[in-house]
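Researcher: I'd like a structural prediction for the single chain below. Treat it as a standalone chain; there are no partners to consider.
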Amino acid sequence: MRARLAACRASACRGAVAVALLAVAGLSACTLFEEELPPVCPDVVVLGDATRLTRFAEGGGRDLLDVDFDARIDNVSVGCELIEEDDETIMMVAVAPIVTVERGPANRDREARFDYFISVLDPQQAILNKQTFGIAVRFPGNRSRLTFRDDAPPVTVDLPLAGGRTPDVFELVVGFQLSAEELTFNRRRGGRP
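Model: Treating it as a single chain, here is the predicted structure.
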């Protein structure tokens, strides 16, 4: 019985030593890879009222048969890089919205043209910068729905990190550039996709 107990204690010690060594190795691994971790990007959100765009054909009709195209921002792909320039640190943020566009019954030219925006907000939610980007989509063959990422050319936003500011004090807001009528239509539609 004592021999078995001693053997158990010895294996328990070996197990404890193994766990301790793994923990130390894990900490060492964290230290080794710490410098290779990518920088923390600012938050990127899609503006709720500007997530969707329904464009109607000319002529005033607002029925389902009058839809030229419908587009929605499904997601946003983001990447960040810190750049040192002239004793100044800048974070370059690459932003690429992932968009789905559907051709409507009134679409005759098999094209959809629209704009989206990217705004930079400060901690008080004031707009520091706003850029608008145009997209032109062609529906090939008999396709009536396309999903793509707008990253050619890549859209970049530079955030100055002077005065100890960190990227997390900024927020990037993405959405479709809507007319007053399109915004009203989205608000009437409410939560419907």
